[in-house]
Specification:
Blueprint lengths: L4 H17 L1 H5 L4 E7 L3 H17 L2 E7 L5 H13 L5 E4 L9 H7 L11 H8 L8 H12 L8 E5 L6 H10 L3 E5 L6 H5 L4 E4 L17 E4 L3 E2 L6 E2 L4 H4 L5 E2 L6 H24 L1
Helix pairs in contact: 1-11, 3-11, 7-8, 7-11
Bound molecules: NADP nicotinamide-adenine-dinucleotide phosphate.
């Protein structure tokens, strides 16, 4: 079964759009997401455009602020401080990566944790690992939604996550653990990766290498989530970290690239913005 993130996200966004239409009557306004884009990297421009389009579908206000890549770190931090103090802003997202002269950790830390719709702020990350209420990072949140929608039972399963980045691998592993899977995290120093992945009942791959996971690395009936976004070196088209054509017949469920985890990430960003908005409404009454 191919789990279409495109279809699931369209359904969830339609539900959110319905919910948002009730907000002007109840709260006097709709949620407001501010996206900051530094420079003009084509991939970042396309991600930011996708976020603006999704906001339009859901009916939330989106402001995209574009800054040249010559902006100083202090100017960017000052802009974020201004947005933190702006009561009409519910979510702030700075599109990564940033130019080398700007510290990404400093920027992430400068965003108010209550407006951190990406869920990258150290206080949100700490809360996630301590099972406290927090803003969940969008990609891992989307992955769990996809598994559940596909009817994959997570509890008690052997899950293998390849990749240990702060934004995908580690938080996915934590969310799977919280769903009572038994989780192994693999990385570039893991020996005999195939032996490990063949034992997986749920396999999440977040490496960033085209078709890295081959057919022989996956057992019959595994649920395969492909997070990777790469350019196929032969065709130049988008492809994942998994050899989709070879593995699809073996997998119980599998996500395609494009149209899998990517759309769900943006969908969860919309959900996080609405959650931040509602929390701020509650605390102001
Ligand atoms: P990252 O920070 O570069 O992390 C890559 C991880 O893969 C690292 O933990 C690395 O191990 C591991 N790795 C690299 N080579 C390996 C190998 N040969 N064997 C086993 N593990 C290996 O990347 P990321 O930010 O997590 O992103 C991963 C991929 O997901 C990228 O293609 C990215 O574009 C994509 N992505 C997609 C979405 C979406 O919404 N669809 C969102 C975020 C990211 P070490 O830790 O040992 O170096």
């Amino acid at each position: 079964m191919i789990v279409s993130g495109k279809e699931l996200s369209a359904r969830l966004k339609a539900e959110m759009a319905e919910q948002v239409t009730t907000f002007p009557m109840k709260y006097g306004r709709v949620p407001h997401l501010v996206v900051i884009l530094v420079g003009d990297d084509p991939a970042s421009v396309s991600y930011v455009t996708g976020k603006a389009k999704a906001s339009q579908v859901v009916g939330i206000k989106n402001t995209t602020i574009r800054k040249p890549d010559t902006i100083s770190e202090e100017e960017l931090l000052s802009l974020i401080r201004h947005l933190n103090d702006d009561d009409t802003v519910d979510g702030i997202l700075v599109q990564l990566p940033l130019p080398k002269h700007i510290s990404e950790p400093k920027v992430i830390e400068s965003i108010s944790k209550d407006k951190d719709v990406d869920g990258f702020h150290p206080l949100n990350v700490a809360a996630l690992w301590q099972k406290q209420p927090c803003i969940l990072p969008c990609t891992p949140k989307g992955i769990i939604k996809m598994l559940k929608t596909a009817g994959v039972q997570i509890a008690g399963k052997r899950a293998v996550v390849i990749g240990r980045s702060n934004i995908v691998g580690l938080p996915v592993a934590k969310l799977l653990l919280d769903e009572n899977a038994t989780v192994t995290i693999a990385h570039s120093r893991t020996k005999d990766l195939g032996d490990l992945t063949r034992q997986a009942e749920i396999l999440v791959v977040a490496i960033g290498r085209p078709r890295f996971v081959t057919e022989d690395m996956v057992s019959e009936g595994t649920a395969v989530i492909d997070v990777g976004v790469n350019r196929d070196p032969e065709t130049g088209k988008l492809c994942g970290d998994v050899d989709f054509a070879a593995i699809e017949p073996k997998a119980s469920v599998i996500t395609p690239v494009p149209g899998g985890v990517g759309p769900m990430t943006i969908c969860c960003l919309m959900e996080n913005t609405i959650e931040c908005f509602l929390k701020r409404q509650e605390s102001s009454h």
